[in-house]
From TrEMBL:
GO terms for molecular function: DNA binding. Pfam families: YbaB_DNA_bd. Residues 86-127 are annotated as: Disordered. This is YbaB/EbfC DNA-binding family protein. It comes from Saccharopolyspora kobensis. InterPro entries: YbaB-like_sf, YbaB/EbfC. It comes from the Bacteria.
Amino acid sequence: MSFETEARVAELMKKIERKVEMAAQNPEAVVYGRFEGTSSSGVVTAWVDAVGRVERVSLAAGSAQEGSEQFLADQFMDAISRAKAAAENLGMEEGAQSEPPAHPAPAPTPENWQSEEPWDEGGSFLR
């Protein structure tokens, strides 16, 4: 094995040991944990499980405008990265709650939107 390979394996082993220690301290976070990340602008919030799989993404009202596609894509990636970083630490960074966060409120259903006009002044159905 080359020196780089050995160094990489040693680094990964330390990371695994650290994760095992964190999981032993907070097993509920591994099983039930939902970790939240919000983009730097606050427009997008993402929730991931302990493995880092995206479970839900929320977009702030009024943030989807024509021409803002790249901005929104960047904000989605930022929020997901932040949520995955929280999952990586099993929510044990400073200021984090020791209990796993609850699931976010369920998404609106078509029944909730029946009383509202789906179009805004700009002709977009996105809010």
